[in-house]
Design brief:
alpha/beta; five-stranded parallel β-sheet; 5 strands
Length: about 170
């Protein structure tokens, strides 16, 4: 086990908000107890998520509280979460939705990891088809383009970030 999650808040269907908050608090405490970072899912709930994390920062692992899976927040959200020490995952969405370019540019490469979120949200080349981990290279290529850096640098740094965040060995 390398992380606690996927946990967090999902208000897309607007049900069980109170119960979600209670369960998320338990996940935060479990993260501290096990010294494992959080893998956070957040959909339509960044205000509450950031408030809960700020109010419970004593339970966050210092220097490595976790990662925001499939991050879709704003630059402001990214700033607040970055101040708490979080990493950010980007997936296929950045290959076809330009509205996240500024967020990707804002977050330092040292805080970014890549994911496919397979089988969902496939990158542009196979959009509307089944996504697979193999396509993470297309996400890396798009990240390199947005940040105006090399594909190799993106691959090297995002891999190092994953190794560090999840306390893996190469």
């Amino acid at each position: 086990m390398v992380a606690i999650g996927e946990c967090g808040l999902d208000y897309h269907r607007k049900e069980n908000k109170k119960e979600q908050k209670i369960i998320f608090l338990e996940h935060i405490r479990l993260s501290k107890e096990t010294n494992k970072p959080l893998m956070i899912h957040c959909r339509d709930a960044f205000g509450d998520l950031i408030e809960i994390l700020n109010d419970n920062r004593r339970f966050l692992i210092a220097n490595n509280p976790g990662v925001l899976h499939f991050f879709t927040g704003t630059v402001e959200d990214a700033g607040k979460l970055s101040d708490l020490g979080f990493y950010f995952n980007f997936g296929g969405l950045i290959t076809f939705n330009r509205s996240f370019d500024e967020v990707v540019k804002f977050i330092p490469l040292e805080k970014i990891m890549l994911e496919t979120d397979a089988p969902y949200v496939a990158p542009a080349s196979i959009r509307y088809k089944r996504n697979e981990p193999y396509y993470v290279s297309e996400i890396a290529q798009k990240l390199a383009e947005i940040k105006n850096i090399s594909f190799e640098e993106v691959c090297e740094k995002t891999t190092a970030n994953a190794v560090k965040n999840f306390n893996l060995t190469k």
